[in-house]
Amino acid sequence: VLVVEVDNKIQGESNIGKNEKLCTICEDFTSKALYYLGENETQTQVISTLHKACSTLHSFKQQCITLVDYYAPMFFLEVSTVSPEQFCEKVNLCGETVVMQLPKREDACSLCHNVVVDVLIKLKDPDTELEVLETLLKGCSKIENFAQKCKKLVFQYGPLILANAEKFLETNDVCTAIHACKNSQEDLTASMLADA
């Protein structure tokens, strides 16, 4: 059964299966985000932001920069293997039952901003941070010769990376970057992020 809350009114459909519209939108946004992350300019911007964060570590600055230069390309390579379909199933937007509150206007820009706000809320949740770190640690186990070093790096820099991801989403209009919004929507992003 699919239950969707629109403007505080529950509308039920006896539809077993996935909500095709919501699933398609998720897959479309994920595809655009993955394309954006795959762009050289985006990767350069992310690495530059991480290098700036490294400069705040003073005595560990050079070690941090070396780690960023080594692991950032691996991160982008890993991101390139993500499939929009699998991602949307993982976040429960494509599946048997979906319960979600949709904005009054279901345009792409509003939905994108709502997703960014939801991601920011999750990034601020310590439980989510632990889940991300656990996933990274599991990934480290797959790197045979560097598992211990990888785990040490996750413990050392994982929280910093998550904090920078949060700052990146707060200071960059991702929805405009992936063309879900026109440039005139920047004010909407700022106001929605301020409410988060």
At CATH level 2, the architecture of the largest domain is Orthogonal Bundle
- Beta-strand residue percentage: 5-15%
Tally of discrete structural domains: 2
Using only CA atoms, what is the Rg? 19 Å
Mean pLDDT, as a whole number?
A: 77
Q: Give the number of DSSP strands.
A: 3
The main sheet comes to: 3 strands, mixed
How far apart, in Å, are the first and last alpha carbons? 30 Å
**What are the secondary-structure elements, in order, as H or E?**
EEHHHHEHHHHH
Structural class of the helices, strands and pairings?
mainly alpha
What is the fold named in CATH at topology level of the largest domain?
NK-Lysin
Low-confidence stretches: 1-18, 185-189
CATH-wise, what's the superfamily of the largest domain?
Answer: Saposin-like
Give your account of this protein's structure:
- InterPro entries: SapB_1 (IPR007856), SapB_2 (IPR008138), Saposin-like (IPR011001), SaposinB_dom (IPR008139), Sphingo_Act-Surfact_Prot (IPR051428).
- It is found in: Secreted, Extracellular space.
- Pulmonary surfactant-associated proteins promote alveolar stability by lowering the surface tension at the air-liquid interface in the peripheral air spaces. SP-B increases the collapse pressure of palmitic acid to nearly 70 millinewtons per meter.
- The protein is mostly helical and 196 residues long.
- It folds into two domains: 1-102, Orthogonal Bundle (NK-Lysin), CATH 1.10.225; 106-196, NK-Lysin, CATH 1.10.225.
- Helices cover 67% and strands 7% of the residues.
- The chain has helices at residues 20-38, 40-54, 61-79, 84-90, 108-123, 126-141, 147-171, 174-177, 186-195, and strands at residues 2-6, 9-13, 99-102.
- A three-stranded mixed sheet has the order 2-1-3, with no helix packed on it.
- The longest helix is centred in the last third of the chain and has 25 residues, at 147-171.
- It is globular and about 50 Å long.
- Mean pLDDT is 77; it is low at 1-18 and 185-189.
